[in-house]
Amino acid sequence: MRLAVALLAAAVLAGACTPVAPYQRGYLARPDMAMEPSDAGTAKALEKVYPAKEAARGGASIGGGGCGCN
Amino acid sequence: MRPLLLLAMLAALALPCAALAVGPGGAIPGVAAPRLADPSQRVEFAKLRGDVVYVDFWASWCVPCRESMPALDSLFRMYHARGFRVVGVNKDVTTGDALRFLQRVKVSFPLVADRDDVVAKAFDVQAMPSGYLVDRKGVVRYVHLGFTADTEAQLRTEIEKLLGSGA
Asked: Is residue A31 within 8 angstroms of chain B, CB to CB?
């Protein structure tokens, strides 16, 4: 029974994954989806958002950090 | 729990993921899409019956499409008078991207937009670009996934065959 429930749960969770169809790759080709920002504005925006998102403010340039208070 | 019941439940969960790709021998899906240049006009795929039709899925971000679009345009110009049509289904996220591409690569065959993926889902497109060569009776006869240097010559042979056979 446990195995059955585990398998069922795995199947339900697997269904939650959404594959990107070949014809939907235009969304992945957007400039803002690039690993490396294509322009200075996006680079600046990512630089600002990244530390907050990762709870590591100051990690890139300032000593300390991690508390999100500086 | 009985293993058979468990298997049936898993199969039921997997069912929505099952691909129903359009392949050779299948009918052209009865879907419609708005023209890229004039969205008030719609192209109904089922009504293309009577001509040999190549339905091509393309996008500005699709690198082989830079080769396939001029090649298809040349085939369209060559065989249009004999009853060959090409419909280009655009898969760009925005119409602006498609129009920018078309400024560089000019084509004379009709283009439709498919923003909501209705046409791509109906064909269950497996690659970009994908092309479906349909005979005069509305039956898909050849499917081309991707576009290489050989595809144009291969398409020419297939088009000649379908135009000549009267099928």
From this structure: no
